[in-house]
Amino acid sequence: SEGCDNPDAYYNTLGPEIWEQTSGEVTHFVAGGSTGGTMSGTSRFLKEASEGRVQTLMPDPVGSVLWGAYHGDGTPAEEGALAAMKYKVEGVGKDSVPGALSFENVDAMLSVTDKEAFDMCRRLSETEGVLAGGSGGLNVHAAVELSERLDKGTIVTVLPDSGVKYLSKIFNSSWRDQNGLKDGAEDPQENLQKARIDAGPEDALAAVADHPQKPPLANREEAGRFLQAAVTMFSEYATARELHQGGPAGAKAIADQPVIKLRSPEQICGEFARVGVPMAIGDNEEAAGREELLEACQLTLDLSMQTNHPLFMNQLYAGPDPVGLVGEWLVAAANSNVHTYEVAPVFTLAEREALAKMARMWMAVPEGGETPTHDGLFVPGGSMANMYGILLARHAADPEVRERGLAGGPRMVGFCSDEAHYSFLKGAATTGLGRQNMVAVATDDDGVMIPEALDAAIEEAKAAGAKPFFVGATAGTTVLGAYDNFTAVRKVCDRHGVWMHVDAAWGSGAFLSPRLRAQYLAGVESADSITWNPHKQMNMPLTCSAFLTKKEGALREANASSAAYLFQPDKLYTEMDLGDRSIQCGRRADAFKLWLAWKSKGDKQWAAESEHAYDLAATFERRIRASERRFVMAARRSCTNVCFWYVPPRLRPQLALHALLDGDEMDPEGPVDISGVPKPLLDELQGVAPKLKARMQETGDAMIGFQQNKGLPNFFRCVFAGAKGLDETVLEELLERMDVLGQDL
């Protein structure tokens, strides 16, 4: 049949048969347009089954109208517009394009003369014992030509007609001689063939042979199906319903589901090779199909840290907020660069509004008050935000350094506490100050910078001929969670005329709650600049970090390059451009996910979530202090950091003989004092946390970090970044499991 059902017939029969017989290894399908459905239906099935990998070649007899129809105006003048010349190979295309034929899945068309097709028929008969008709010779000739161009592949073609009806023609020497098809003679259609190819592509096989195959996902419909499947997978993963259902069922799921399925690098590589997507990107890398890519995505999630697991308490971040995640996906889908308003109008406005809101919260503006003057940017991480603080402070102290460079200027010296984040040292090295010129200031037992020590360090630097220019205070240190005394630090900075920056990357959750702000952030509004990381306690997808300063225009003064091709002064809305404030050119729209999440929660929900995390950390501290020395606090809790030792049973009686704590260990105000503990016991305690953590990792239990600090033996540091899915029962059961795992240490 040449009707509309013809392609469907081949789609349901020949296509699946080819796929089954080749075990899915077919790479090329070759067929003429004799009924239309052979090519249309079969190629449609093979492309769907292979996710676009199979390529199709349609051989076409010289004189057919199909060449012109496929190439538009590609029919040479000798043929006339869609007017057919006579040819000996039987089939369609002499008068019109059949209704069953669709070019949608045809990747290339090869013009074949009668002589080339008939010579192949005779060759098949003589060498293979196959009596093929003209269309069969046409197809096999094209397949052979294609095979000569491929390094590897599996070509499938069909023999649609029998040679019996050609016995008096193709296989009759007299007939061949009469029609100019004699063996060894010139091809009578050579001139028409040349004219035809000249009107089409120079290399008809290039699309399916020499050129790289289109990746499967180059097809937008296929890409859409891939994206839909991926979104479903990611949504299920990010939602983690069982882990966050609460109650006894939630506690059981939390205990049963591993935080990570930790594997060696060799095991991970083996798993990816198993699904057909090796980790290595080799030479002549071939495109993977949709199902393989989805398997690789699922495997990546399976073997990665499940940061949305409530017991992921290892680092200062956690699983992403669902609305923030949608914002992240939107930003990636839009793929805009937030350097100019004209290419990112909505993202520019969202960033400006997010910065304005954060500036009001930082500077404690009363409800309904005007937004104070400020400047700011969303930047790729807290380390970069702290470096912006160093850059602006240096520019304020020595504006000429921007053009002059460091040579010839004063020796600039900055200060931060010995508990501050290492990004201050990195910033000093990157900006050319030198690590030696970022002075570490002593802290007290709780990790709080000692204002008198800061003042003395600045005086010492002045006496040595240096120019103090920067102090980096901290709101929530990495290990102990300490908040510096911002009011006292401000007084020291004012006395010496030094820029005060506050790294609130971790402890900025306290901005969200009036109660927590009063407890932890008194005086922070006096700083000249701050770092605020919403990807930490606010659970925005990484990265989402902001730098803010009170000095309006300071970022442009320190960083602007006025690139003429971007920041034209006479274009529309040029005053809205953010890019010239930055040391980057390419900037992601990281502010948008925070803007969207803020719209979804409002201020009250942010306050409730932040208070939940801080209160739960306080509860966990009380549980540890009430554990009868199975667990012992290593420092007073601050922020949401709870630092503690696990004490194995055999060490408990010995430690009970010594004053590990100054005063009653039930007293949350008691500082740690290890002066009475013999060194051998401290050495043994030093090895407990690494061994216990290794056992927890092997079982997939809670991910909690450990470290040494202030001369103390290794202790666990449990941090509550959002504390989603956690309650007192879950924490109590965690301590019980840790005690079971550590009984014999």
Task: Explain how this protein is built.
With 745 residues, the chain is of the alpha/beta class. It has 25 helices and 16 strands. The strands form 3 sheets. The chain has a 7-stranded mixed sheet, sandwiched between helices. A 5-stranded mixed sheet has the order 5-15-16-14-13. Strand 10 (499-504), helix 20 (514-520) and strand 11 form a beta-alpha-beta unit. It is elongated and about 115 Å long.
Distance between the termini: 80 Å
How many DSSP H or I helices?
A: 25
Percent range for helical residues? 40-55%
The strand order across the widest sheet is 6-12-11-10-9-7-8
| Inertia-based shape | elongated
- Poorly predicted regions: 74-84, 659-668
Percentage beta strand: 5-15%
Given helix and strand content, the structural type is: alpha/beta
For the largest beta-sheet, the strand count, sense and barrel status come to:
7 strands, mixed
Please describe the topology of this protein.
Blueprint (H helix, E strand, L loop, with lengths): L5 H7 L1 H8 L6 E3 L6 H13 L5 E7 L4 H5 L37 E5 L1 H15 L5 H14 L7 E3 L15 H6 L11 H10 L20 H20 L7 H10 L8 H10 L15 H13 L9 E2 L8 H13 L10 H18 L12 E5 L2 H16 L3 H4 L7 E6 L5 H8 L7 E4 L9 H13 L3 E8 L11 H11 L2 E6 L9 H7 L8 E4 L12 E5 L4 H6 L30 H36 L5 E3 L7 E6 L5 H5 L22 H21 L3 E7 L2 E8 L8 H14 L4
Parallel strand pairs: 1-2, 1-4, 2-3, 5-15, 7-8, 7-9, 9-10, 10-11
Antiparallel strand pairs: 6-12, 11-12, 13-14, 14-16, 15-16
